[in-house]
Amino acid sequence: MTFQAPKGTFDWMPPRSEWALAVRDALAAPARRAGYGYVETPAFEDTALFARGVGESTDIVTKEMYTFTSRGGQSLTLRPEGTASVMRAVLEHGLYGGPLPIKLWYSGSYFRYERAQAGRYRHFSQVGAEALGAEDPALDAELIVLAMDGYASLGLSGVRLLLNSLGCKECRPAYRAALQDFLRGLDLDEATRNRIEINPLRVLDDKRPEVRAQLDGAPLVTDHLCGACKAYHEEVRGLLTAAGVAYEDDPRLVRGLDYYTRTTFEFLHDGLGAQSAVGGGGRYDGLSEQIGGPALPSVGWALGVDRTVLAMEAEGLLAERPGGVEVFAVPLGEEARRRVFPLVSELRRAGLAVDMAFGGRGVKGAMKAADRSGARYALILGDRDIEAGAVQVKDLTTADQTAVPLAEVVAFLKGKLS
Ligand code: AMP
Fold first, then answer.
1. Ligand 1 neighbour 137 (Cβ under 6 A)
2. Ligand 1 atom nearest to 302, measured from its CA
3. H helix runs in 269-401, sequence order
4. Is residue 81 in contact with ligand 1, taking CB distance under 6 Å?
5. Integer Cα distance of 254 and 218 in angstroms
6. Per-residue pLDDT averaged across 198-202, rounded?
7. Does the CB atom of residue 260 touch ligand 1 within 6 A?
8. Average pLDDT rounded to a whole number, residues 291-316
């Protein structure tokens, strides 16, 4: 019997897996440089945290959670997103009593029982950043700029930023009611009609053409913002422009999670087909109170690692292989292996990335392995070299070969590769 990865999941295998690591690092780097500290929370939480935090009426909570009962009888859920867990941790550790905002970043696996398709998986990876405990348009703008800088540092040029404001608890209820009035007059199926009563903003997000066609005249949230929300949103837009970040206003941008208020944004890439969001986020001023905490206005984002790799592929950015080794050693015979092994260890300790041929496959196979490794230099050691106390250093890009005394190899290669 053989096994396969479960439906909707896949393995990151080398060399492609190197890109997953590189993307994770690159997306987190700007936040780390901006004072965000690393947080790691459990991969599962009390089910009620997500039910209350993400929202009982969301697709995530009603259809997509991996929920199970532990042997101790507790209902637990594999985390479908990161924000509720980070908020839970901040509340549990009382960080809100200290300096604000609390800036945190994280990275890990998330789980949603989704309809599996290209770019949409049941197990996926995100990098997230949250700034908790401050209501300041500069913080919203900071997070957006950090995400855009992360994408740009990977060489991506096709990431578009969509921006909206969802209003606050002062102005959203009136908008919600106006939207409900409009939606109740449309020709919709029963499930969608139910959604109008529970979560009308989500109807705006319906992708079906027959629904979309009816939404043209829908009231827009941006026409219903209160003075404070309008001013806040203008400030965010101005700061983005000042930082050189282009955005598109999208008054229909809503998000799949209930906790968003005011600023919401999404990062799209047009090379991805239907699953075009490479990241998204926004302000969630009510989440803390929703899960039993004090008022703690916050803003954050989550960027999809898997889809960012796909976006890079669509832009032809995966050609150059990240990682890999710089030097590949080829011992010709057993005595040569005994001598090469400590040399390889020494080179690695000196900071070089080094591999060697294993399995005694003969020169041809070993040289093929050297080529495949992507190394710039091969170190070849045969009986004659041992006698001469030297090793052949072959530049695999030019095929030039020079004999270097064994005692000088480390310094020689360090000089070449630095
Ligand atoms: P969300 O929490 O839904 O806003 O997700 C933030 C980002 O995570 C999205 O923009 C995607 O890039 C990524 N993402 C969310 N769900 C999935 C999924 N099922 N498969 C792959 N990536 C996902």
1. no
2. 6
3. 287-290, 305-314, 334-349, 362-372, 383-388
4. yes
5. 14
6. 87
7. no
8. 97
Pocket test for ligand 1, best of 306, 308, 310, 312 (most atoms within 8 A of CB): 306
**Which residues of the chain are in CATH 3.40.50.800 domains?**
327-417
**CATH 3.30.930.10 boundaries in the chain:** 16-171+225-314
Structure confidence at residue 256 (pLDDT): 64
- 133-138 long-range Cβ contacts below 8 angstroms, 24+ apart: 133/96, 133/100, 133/101, 133/102, 133/296, 133/297, 133/298, 134/100, 134/101, 134/297, 134/298, 135/285, 135/297, 136/101, 137/232, 137/233, 137/235, 137/236, 137/239, 137/263, 138/235, 138/239
User: Quick one: CATH architecture of 16-171+225-314?
Assistant: 2-Layer Sandwich (3.30)
Distance 117 CA to ligand 1 centre (A): 13
- Give yes or no for a contact between 79 and 85, defined as CB atoms under 8 angstroms apart: yes
- Candidate of 307, 308, 310, 312 to mutate for ligand 1, largest count of ligand atoms within 8 Å of Cβ: 307
pLDDT of residue 358: 94
Whether 52 is in the pocket of ligand 1, judged by its Cβ within 6 Å, is: no
| 106 Cα to the center of ligand 1, angstroms | 15
User: Residue 43 Cα, ligand 1 centroid: separation in angstroms?
Assistant: 16
Q: Judge: domain 327-417, CATH 3.40.50.800.
A: yes
- Kindly give the distance from the C-alpha atom of residue 328 to the centroid of ligand 1, in angstroms, as a whole number: 39
Quickly state the pLDDT bin for 199 (edges 50, 70, 90).
Answer: confident
Centre of ligand 1 from the C-alpha of residue 384, in Å: 58
Closest residue to atom 17 of ligand 1, CA basis:
120
Report pTM: 0.92
For residue range 129-161, what is the model confidence (pLDDT) as tens digits?
999 999 999 999 999 999 999 999 999 999 999
pLDDT digits (tens, 9 = 90+) for 363-393: 899 999 999 999 999 999 999 999 999 999 9
Distance CA 358, CA 335 (A): 14
Note the pLDDT tens digit of each residue in 245-267.
999 999 989 876 667 899 999 99
